[in-house]
Write a structure and sequence with these properties.
The complex is a heterodimer of chains A (about 350) and B (about 80).
Chain A: E1 4-7, E2 9-18, E3 22-24, H1 25-33, H2 35-45, E4 49-51, H3 59-73, E5 83-87, H4 98-106, E6 113-117, H5 123-138, E7 142-149, E8 167-176, E9 186-193, E10 201-202, E11 210-211, H6 213-233, E12 244-247, H7 252-261, H8 273-276, H9 283-294, E13 306-314, E14 318-326, E15 332-336
Helix pairs in contact in A: 1-2, 3-4
Chain B: H1 4-15, H2 36-50, H3 65-74
Helix pairs in contact in B: 1-2
The chains are: A alpha/beta (about 350), B mainly alpha (about 80).
Chain lengths: ~350, ~80
């Protein structure tokens, strides 16, 4: 498997901002699906509660709140950032890009690059790779914003997507390792894109998300699983073994079975979907923030960085994998959107 | 190992159909209740109840109660 290496990048903070109310998934689905199908949907997805952005709250609002928290908790001022990468499939306005709007709102310097990446569920890993490259190229910290208000493009009458999609905005600060005192390390990335000729997961221009659950499940447990397995087995001998697996929170049953097939015991799999649903590509950074905040040193009590194995798959059909470090003591948080920010 | 009848009766309960209508030849998509979402729940519930596992790459491929019973019989 061909992999891409990035040297001496570090994560200096991860924040996630979610809509304030936890919506009971069963209660939400029952009027649309009926009680039996709603129960089936909740049991199958494993998503007990979802986060639904209130009217008027967009991806920009959630990402901006997360970005302000992440930048504020980092040792860097906005003026020092070298780039802003935004990952989303629901940017709100198409132009200016989400990254441009965040860049301005945060007061980043005009010379800092700003661009959006569209890579659906695998997007965070693509964004992290881009952020690490910008950090190395500029010698400055880079902000990676990743968020979606998927409920704005999900058909409220579609029983296939209603119990699944949720909303969140996240921000990850990536910097050259020396800038935040992290030990030198090498990150490894790999990517898979198959195209989606049969339309397993589609968001047409101006339309609604349509999902063929079987086709997505087949991709996740077939080509994507093989790809993740290949990524793990092709690790260089000197690469630290992963401490934890952080999968895209597609569906909790699927996540458990994929983790098991990859050889990860339950206590080495980080999840957040039970409480936050499938937040698209933002599910990976949300899960990192959620689990690292709950157990700052898990799974080991040492102060060594945790080696995260990130595995994401979905729309595209695409998948991405990364092995990266999360320093212990790195600021992480999940918080509700403050009133008045939506 | 469950008997065929035990297996079919339990599957009927999950699918919400009368037990006599649950046959080994019944397949996903052949009745309105058994759609793709129900398929995953059916596999999940059968696995939990009878203590076996369908290999992850075959979950979306095995489409009949008879096929699922094959895994229950062998325990994997």
């Amino acid at each position: 498997m061909s992999a891409i290496l990035c040297h001496d990048a570090a994560i200096a903070g991860v924040s996630a901002c979610v809509p304030p109310a936890a919506v009971d998934n069963l209660a939400r689905c029952t009027p649309v699906c009926g009680p039996e199908k709603a129960a089936t949907a909740v049991k199958t997805t494993g998503f007990r509660t979802l986060r639904v952005a209130p009217p008027g709250c967009g991806t920009f609002d959630l990402c901006l709140a997360a970005a302000r928290r992440a930048v504020g908790e980092s040792p860097f001022s906005p003026a020092g950032f070298g780039a802003l990468v935004a990952v989303t499939v629901t940017p709100g306005d198409e132009m200016p890009a989400l990254a441009n709007r965040l860049h301005r709102a945060l007061g980043f310097p005009p010379a800092a690059a700003a661009l959006d990446i569209r890579a659906a569920c695998a997007g965070y890993v693509y964004g992290l790779h881009a952020a690490a490259m910008y950090a190395a190229a500029t010698g400055r910290p880079v902000l990676l914003a990743d968020g979606d208000v998927q409920t704005s493009v999900a058909d409220p009458a579609d029983p296939a997507t209603l119990p699944v999609f949720s909303d969140a905005g996240t921000a990850t600060v990536v910097c050259p390792a020396a800038m935040c005192g992290a030990p030198p390390s090498t990150w490894r990335f790999a990517f898979l894109s198959e195209g989606d000729p049969s339309g397993a997961l589609r968001l047409p221009w101006g339309g609604r998300i349509a999902m063929d659950g079987f086709a997505v499940f087949r991709f996740a447990t077939g080509p994507a699983l093989d790809f993740l397995r290949g990524f793990l087995s092709s690790a260089p001998a000197d690469e630290p073994p992963p401490s934890v697996f952080v999968p895209h929170q597609a569906n909790m049953y699927m996540v458990r079975r994929i983790a098991q097939a990859l050889g990860f015991a339950e206590d080495r799999v980080w999840t957040s979907g039970e409480s936050y649903g499938n937040c698209g590509s933002a599910s990976v950074p949300l899960t990192i923030a959620h689990c690292a905040a709950a157990a700052p040193h898990a799974p080991s009590p040492s102060s060594a960085p945790r080696r995260l194995f990130l595995g994401a798959f979905g729309g595209g059909l695409a998948a991405a994998a990364a092995a990266v470090d999360l320093p212990c003591g790195c600021p992480v948080s999940v918080f509700p959107l403050p009133q008045g920010d939506g | 190992m469950p008997t065929e009848r035990e297996f079919l009766d339990f599957a009927a309960g999950i699918l919400g159909i009368p037990p006599p209508e649950a046959a080994m030849s019944l397949s996903c998509g052949s009745i309105p209740q058994w759609d793709s979402v129900m398929h995953i729940r059916l596999v999940l519930e059968l696995e939990e109840h009878f203590g076996f596992q369908v290999p992850v790459g075959e979950i979306a491929e095995v489409k009949t109660l008879g096929g699922l019973y094959g895994y229950a019989r062998t325990g994997k």
